[in-house]
C-alpha cells in the first residue's frame, strides 16, 4: 500500500460523551502498541488518529495490525501532495487512473480559504485532468466506483480514495476485563474472540483433570490463545487442577446432576479468580440449547452461585455460524485436534436438562467442596501467552 498516512476513525466512541477523551487516549495507546517496531508516528486527534507512514511496506503491515485493534471503525489510507495547482491536478488524476475504476467523483473541502480555487474548482481541476488522460472514464455523482476526497489544508493537500472496515467495538481496556472459561473445544475460543473484538479484555481459566485429561490440551490452548494475541498482546491462562473436585462429584452426586454440579464448581472458582484479579464478568462459550447443561433452566441454576454478570457471547448463535467464525479466525483447526475435556470424560448418560436448585444444594452439602476449591485455586499454574 503506497500511501503516506493512515487516518483511523473511532466509530461508536463518538457517542460516549464525557468518556470520549479517555477512550481516545486508550485507543491511541493501543494503536501505538500495535504498531510498535514500525517506523511510524502516531497522533491522537479529536476525531481521528493520524498515523504518518515511512514507506510502502510499513503501510501494508500497519493496516494488517490495525485491523485487529478493537475500537477502530475504519482506516482511510491517504496521500499528501503539495498545494501547487498543477501538482494537485496531476497527483489527483493519477490516483483515479491508478485505481483502475471506470466511474468516479471528486469531493473537496478547503480549510485554507485563501487557496486560488474553491472546493468546486478543486473538483473540476482534478476531474478534468483525469477525464483528459483516462480512456473510458466517466464521472458518476450518485454511484461512483471510486470517490476521491481532497482536503486543502494550510500546509498541504490530503487525498484519499476509500477506507477499510475495522473491527469496531471499543478500545481494549476501556470497558473492563472478563474471566473467560476456556475449554479446548470450538465454541469458547470464538466466544473469547467476540469479547476481544468488542473491547473486553480477557483472562482465561481452564479446568484440567489429569490423568483423565491429557497435557496436550495445554499446548492446544496456548496455540489457540496465540491466535488471539493480535487482539490482546498478553493473555493469562490459569490452569486449575480439577481432578479431586471432579472425583468427589462423581462419588457423591447422582449421575444426572454431575454436569450441573461440575459447572457450578467451575463458576465458583472462576468467580473467586475474577474477584481477586479485578475482572468484572465471567464468560463462557455456551449456546442456549446446544447440550443438556446449556438449557435456560441449567443456566439459571449454574448462575446462582455467582453475582458476577455471566457473558455468553454465543448464546443465540447457530453452531454452523460458530464453526464459520472459528475457521475465519483460525482456531477451528486447533480446536478439532482430538482431546479429552473433563466434561466429555465424565459425561453422564442422561444429564438433567431441567435441574432443580434444591437438589443441587442437597448434593453439594455431601462433600466439603469449599476446601477443595481453596486447594484447587492454590494449585493454579498461570501461563502467559504473548505475541
Ligand atoms: P466448547 O467448544 O467451547 O468446548 P462445547 O460446546 O463443547 O463448548 P461444553 O463442553 O458443554 O460445550 O462447555 C460449555 C462451556 O463451558 C465452554 O464453552 C467453556 O466456556 C466452558 N468449559 C467447558 N469445559 C471447560 C474446561 N475444561 N475448562 C474451562 N472451561 C470449560
Ligand atoms: Mg467442550
Automatic annotation (TrEMBL):
Q: Which UniProt keywords apply?
A: ATP-binding, Cytoplasm, Nucleotide-binding, RNA-binding, Thiamine biosynthesis, Transferase, tRNA-binding
The segment(s) forming the THUMP domain are 60-163
Entry-linked InterPro entries = Rossmann-like_a/b/a_fold, ThiI_AANH, ThiI_fer, ThiI_N, THUMP_dom, THUMP_ThiI, tRNA_STrfase, tRNA_sulfurtransferase_ThiI
Highest taxon, organism lineage? Bacteria
Where in the cell is the protein located? Cytoplasm
List positions binding ATP: 181-182, 206-207, 263, 285, 294
Pathway noted in the entry: Cofactor biosynthesis; thiamine diphosphate biosynthesis
**Pfam families tied to this protein:** ThiI (PF02568), ThiI_fer (PF22025), THUMP (PF02926)
What GO molecular function annotations does the UniProt record carry, in alphabetical order?
A: ATP binding; CCA tRNA nucleotidyltransferase activity; tRNA binding; tRNA-uracil-4 sulfurtransferase activity
Q: Name one GO biological process term.
A: thiamine diphosphate biosynthetic process
Catalytic reaction equation(s): [ThiI sulfur-carrier protein]-S-sulfanyl-L-cysteine + a uridine in tRNA + 2 reduced [2Fe-2S]-[ferredoxin] + ATP + H(+) = [ThiI sulfur-carrier protein]-L-cysteine + a 4-thiouridine in tRNA + 2 oxidized [2Fe-2S]-[ferredoxin] + AMP + diphosphate; [ThiS sulfur-carrier protein]-C-terminal Gly-Gly-AMP + S-sulfanyl-L-cysteinyl-[cysteine desulfurase] + AH2 = [ThiS sulfur-carrier protein]-C-terminal-Gly-aminoethanethioate + L-cysteinyl-[cysteine desulfurase] + A + AMP + 2 H(+)
Q: What is its EC number?
A: 2.8.1.4
Q: Which GO terms describe its cellular component?
A: cytosol
Q: Which family does it belong to?
A: Belongs to the ThiI family.
Query: Which PANTHER family does the entry mention?
Result: TRNA SULFURTRANSFERASE
NCBIfam families hit by this protein: tRNA uracil 4-sulfurtransferase ThiI
Query: Function, please?
Result: Catalyzes the ATP-dependent transfer of a sulfur to tRNA to produce 4-thiouridine in position 8 of tRNAs, which functions as a near-UV photosensor. Also catalyzes the transfer of sulfur to the sulfur carrier protein ThiS, forming ThiS-thiocarboxylate. This is a step in the synthesis of thiazole, in the thiamine biosynthesis pathway. The sulfur is donated as persulfide by IscS.
Annotated protein name in UniProt: Probable tRNA sulfurtransferase
Organism for this UniProt entry: Candidatus Alloenteromonas pullistercoris
